[in-house]
Amino acid sequence: MKQKNLVIGYIETKNLILLRDRDIHCLDVINLAFAAVKDHVVTWDPMGHLDILKRVKALNPDLKLVLSIGGWGSGGFSEAASTKEGREVFAESAVALMKEYGLDGLDIDWEYPCVGIAGIDCSENDKENFTLLIKKLREELDAITDRDCTLSIAAGGDSYYLRCTQMDQVAEYLDYVMLMTYDLRGGFSVQTGHHTNLYTNNADLSAASTDYAVSIFEQAGVAKEKLVIGAAFYSRVWKGVPDRNRGLMQMAETTGGYGPDYGVLVTDYIDKNGYTRYWDEEAKAPYLFNGCNFISYDDKESIQCKINYIKDRKLAGIMFWEYSQDGTHTLIPLIAEKIKADDHE
């Protein structure tokens, strides 16, 4: 029996107006970003785009529309998960939204349990409460009989995330674990490097890579058939980089801040305006350097390597953040073509 690899795309609700018909046929799942949590209740504003959601279903009835809850800097999870009543309100309100708008599942993007970054509340009890919250969501979804509902999480691709969760238990209730294998290096590091690399360069002291994330999640008890790896349609940029080693693994004057989207990179940066594109064969990752600024990103070559990896490791598929960031409109058709070709046994 052939294994179908999935193409999953995150799209911010405000960007639904940009959704192209061709891409609708390329995608298996659209994760609508984001719903929020306030006083234990999940809320979401479709911003008047319900007609677009209907068009999506009409063009591709097999495509699943999933409501993604949370995102960077989105709080309310720790408080809701801390009590039985809070978990019930969270789960019931999330499922009610899903039913109201004819959606097919839920995706939980809690960044992060037990970690109070970006101003969100946290608790040492988040580890156990996260499991209980996911369990309650699974129960609510399983009670729906008129559709096959999916449940996934967006997970940090590092060992720290695993220490803050009971991933072996959580995974039992999930259809997919979306590994956020981007931002692996960036906002907290002044050393340049790849932020969405497949493998680790042997000269890099950081172990962070897509392959590392997959390996530690498998070791933590997540079936590889549930693992989805991430691709980035945006870049990370370091400034004030010494002109050595093409800028790679150098100490910069800044951390790796949010950089240009892929569409802008193609138009203004890749082998243009003083920037040269280089390829790290060990990491299977491209990067740009102009003698001063270093940019890490994904492109067609690195994404092809990720797709080959998915097939070789028999993973669930690939996801990307975020739809609107590919102004070239070339990455999604490429992903769909390559990942659906020669589906493996």
UniProtKB/TrEMBL annotation:
EC number, as in UniProt: 3.2.1.14
GO MF terms, alphabetically ordered: chitin binding; endochitinase activity
Key words of the record: Carbohydrate metabolism, Chitin degradation, Coiled coil, Glycosidase, Hydrolase, Polysaccharide degradation
Gene3D superfamilies in the record: 3.10.50.10, Glycosidases
Coiled coil: 120-147
GH18 domain span: 5-342
Gene Ontology biological-process entries: carbohydrate metabolic process; chitin catabolic process
Claim: Coiled coil is one of the keywords in the record: yes
InterPro entries registered for this protein in UniProt: Chitinase_II/V-like_cat, Chitinase_insertion_sf, GH, Glyco_hydro18_cat, Glyco_hydro_18_chit_AS, Glycosyl_Hydrlase_18
Top EC group: hydrolase
Domain of life according to the entry: Bacteria
Keyword Hydrolase among record annotations: yes
Pfam family, one: Glyco_hydro_18
Annotated CDD domains: GH18_chitinase
Known catalytic reactions: Random endo-hydrolysis of N-acetyl-beta-D-glucosaminide (1->4)-beta-linkages in chitin and chitodextrins
Protein family: Belongs to the glycosyl hydrolase 18 family.
Protein name from the UniProt record: chitinase
Species classification: Bacteria, Bacillati, Bacillota, Clostridia, Lachnospirales
